[in-house]
Write a structure and sequence with these properties.
262 residues; alpha/beta; Carbamate kinase; 8-stranded mixed sheet; 4-stranded mixed sheet; 12 strands; 40% helix; 21% strand
């Protein structure tokens, strides 16, 4: 791939941000708003873009029902793979459609077709088509999906796992993780402007004590995964989904919590 590291940005759309609690219900207004902000920023600033989205209320129910995260454990597990993959792909198609309608040449990249995991971690990822899409300045969109696991039979491939792998391979200049919260909070509920190797140990203690834990492991897990990306000399930003935040961050303004210098 041509070296446009400083022009490449990853954006993760958190599942709770783009879906509602009711099963298989997308927040179409928020998705269209995000797509518009992306297009407006791309008109003003030259950068390549890779999108990733969480599953939210789409694949969560079948994944829980069939215990897909545990691997192939019984005769119903194959049905679970099919149901989870179908649900996850439906949400991704909604996002891709919104991006296309906003003026972006977005294309879906299905992780379950290009990735293999082993003990729930990605070990193979055929990235060549994705790299060509980026070279052509299109917008590939990956997403949290089910995958084939060489040891356990199947696994859940989270968007964070995809980003950690792709960050090492593609070396983006910036990664933006969008969530329902405005960033990482301290013990007084204030947004921490930056997390780095000097202050993380203290912040980690606060996050461990947080009582708001989501199904993907809570904020401590998100920060830990973000640090893995930051170790590739990448600036990672955790920002809220409030209107205007994404466009500001894409244009280089400080929003939310910045994770760097690890």
């Amino acid at each position: 791939m041509k070296n446009f590291r400083n022009q490449l940005i990853f954006i993760k759309l958190g599942g709770s941000l783009i879906t509602k609690k009711k099963p298989h219900t997308a927040d179409f207004k928020k998705i269209r708003e995000i797509a518009k902000e992306i297009h407006e920023a791309r008109k003003e600033k030259d950068f390549r873009l890779l999108i990733g989205n969480g599953g939210g209320s789409y694949p969560h129910i079948p994944a829980q029902k069939y215990k897909t995260a545990e691997g192939i454990i019984n005769e119903r597990s194959l049905k679970g793979i099919a149901e989870v993959q179908d649900a996850a792909s439906k949400l991704n198609r909604i996002i891709v459609r919104a991006l296309v309608d906003a003026g972006e040449n977005a294309v879906s990249v299905q992780p379950s077709s290009v990735c293999l995991t082993k003990n729930f971690r990605i070990v193979e990822f055929y990235t060549k088509p994705l790299e060509i899409f980026l070279e052509k300045n299109m917008v590939p969109a990956v997403y949290g999906d089910v995958g084939l696991d060489l040891k356990q039979g199947c696994s859940i491939i989270s968007t964070e796992e995809l980003f950690v792998f792709l960050a090492k391979k593609l070396k983006p200049g910036k990664i933006i993780l969008m969530a329902k919260v405005d960033g990482v909070y301290d013990e007084k509920g204030r947004v921490i402007p930056q997390i780095n190797k000097n202050n993380f140990s203290g912040i980690k203690k606060v996050l461990k004590g947080a009582d708001k834990i989501d199904v993907t492991g809570g904020m401590l897990h998100k920060v830990t995964e973000a640090i893995k990306m930051a170790r590739e000399n990448i600036e990672v930003n955790i920002i809220g989904g409030e209107k205007g935040n994404l466009e500001k961050c894409l244009k280089g303004k400080k929003v939310g919590t910045q994770i760097k210098n690890f």
